[in-house]
Structures are given as C-alpha cells and as structure tokens.
Write a structure and sequence with these properties.
By secondary structure, this protein is of the alpha+beta class. It folds into 2 domains: about 100 residues, 50s Ribosomal Protein L17, Chain: A (Alpha-Beta Complex), CATH 3.90.1030; about 45 residues. It is built from 5 helices and 3 strands. A 3-stranded antiparallel sheet has the order 1-3-2. Strand 2 and strand 3 form a beta hairpin. Helix 1 packs across helix 4 and helix 3 crosses helix 4.
Length: about 150
Amino acid sequence: MLSNMAVSLIMHKRITTTLAKAKALKKYVEPLITKSKEDTTNSRRVVFSYLQDKHAITELFTTISKAVADRPGGYTRIIKTGFRASDAAPMCFIELVDFDENMAKTAKKAKRTRRSSKKATTAPAAEEATPVAEAEAPAAEVAETAAPAEEAQE
C-alpha cells in the first residue's frame, strides 16, 4: 500500500488520504527522496526496490531531485482537511513542498488601481498648470499697456 501511495505522490505531487496513512507515507517517502539526490545506479536500484515503477523512478530522479537539491529534509507537507463524512476519519492531503504553487513564497505584485493613480497624477498637474498660465497673463497685460504708452510719447 505504501509503495503505491508513494508512486501516486511522486507522479501527482499531491494526494488526499487519511491522516494515519499520510504520516506513514511521510516516513516511507522522505528517505527515498533523499536517496534520489545522488543519481547513481545503486541509488536508482535501491529506490526501485521500494517503488517498483519505472516512470515514478524517472520522475523522482529528474524533476523532484532537482527541485529539492538544496533542501536538507522535510520534503513533504501534511495539511488537515477535516473529517470524512462516512466514518469521521480525519482526512488530509500530503504534498511535495517544492511543487505547491499556492504555498510558494514569491514576491507579490503590488496591486495597482487606476482610479487612485489617475487622481494622484492628474490633480497636481492641473494645479501646476493654472499658476503658470496666470503668471503669463499679467506679464502679457503689462507689455500691452506699456506699448501704447510708448506710442503716445513719440
């Protein structure tokens, strides 16, 4: 049972099961993932003796071992989901830590709203434009009033 569950976990990256089975699977699969870090013929044969599935071995030694290469342990995560309706058994899902997109720590993009950015950029621009126009208008009026006075003196 544990080898079949381990193959399913390796192939699907997440499976739903009871809490007791997940805890047993965690103890079963984590040493296999540690062995997969070293890609030698002997480690492949040792892991194959546990799993008995060529496709799972290939997946484990190619993608999973590369993803967990710098992790010192703790390759799986158990998250409790509640109780099963029929017999009230505690249910959970067990997943490989480095393959969960929702729990991955990535920098979140800052949420941008158009409304606030428009108000922030257009309001100061409008305020700056009106004093400049007012400053130009009196200078033009002074020049116009000075010009007829010079004509009168000539």
